[in-house]
Design goal:
Layout: H1 5-28, E1 33-34, H2 36-65, H3 72-106, E2 108-120, E3 131-136, E4 148-151, H4 154-159, E5 165-172, E6 176-179, E7 196-199
Antiparallel strand pairs: 1-6, 2-3, 2-5, 3-4, 5-6, 5-7
Length: 208
């Protein structure tokens, strides 16, 4: 947006801030899952927001382009790129970054029964050697809709069995469900904080 003046710089700064928020949210709240209504509405909200942002950019560019000769083809390509990029950023904000942040701040903590979907083999990664794929035992609207792949402490990992019961430490809000950070026990070999409060008595599923 070079030459577009303060308005152009403000729009560029806003876009960069949104991208930074999204990146932070994906790192800080990777397990967040929005409610079904928000998942459905997010693309529509993104299209509206992306269109509005593109209109602001077009207005800023028009003021700058009035002072110089402009390649119409290049301008059209640039505005198409802005529209696609702004819509994608708006979708990630609406579906993940904003609701995940609000849920982390205002959601209520809840311990929920879960099941071990898969016991991931021990990894050579020093930051996360022991992982489990787990899901919520019951998944009504707004609950975890897909399995989570999370670091756990070594003691929990060794006791876990596929199909066994585990207690999930969640943070539940009106916009979705996230995995609560922190646990009472932390293993020195796993630098990420374990997100499960403990393993219940194993329940091995039997094939009939």
């Amino acid at each position: 947006l070079e030459g577009a003046g303060v308005s152009g710089r403000v729009l560029a700064a806003a876009l960069l801030a949104a991208v930074a928020w999204i990146a932070w949210g994906l790192v800080r709240h990777p397990g967040f899952q929005p409610v079904a209504l928000l998942r459905t509405a997010a693309p529509v909200l993104a299209l509206v927001a992306g269109g509005g942002f593109t209109r602001l950019v077009a207005s800023a560019r028009a003021r700058a382009d009035a002072q110089r000769e402009v390649d119409r083809g290049g301008k059209a390509l640039f505005m198409g790129f802005v529209m696609v990029g702004a819509t994608l950023v708006a979708w990630l904000l609406a579906a993940q970054a904003i609701p995940a942040t609000l849920t982390a701040w205002s959601g209520r903590p809840a311990d929920e029964p879960g099941l071990v979907v898969r016991k991931v083999p021990e990894s050579a990664d020093a930051g996360c050697r022991f992982r489990l794929e787990v899901r919520r035992a019951a998944a009504p609207d707004g609950a975890l809709q897909r399995a989570l792949d999370e670091c756990v402490d070594e003691a929990l990992w060794r006791r876990a069995v596929e199909g066994g019961a585990v207690t999930l430490r969640l943070r539940v809000g009106a916009l979705g469900v996230g995995v609560a950070g922190g646990a009472a026990a932390q293993a020195p070999r796993c630098s990420r904080r374990p997100r499960f409060s403990g393993l219940a008595r194993p329940l091995v599923l039997k094939l009939s």
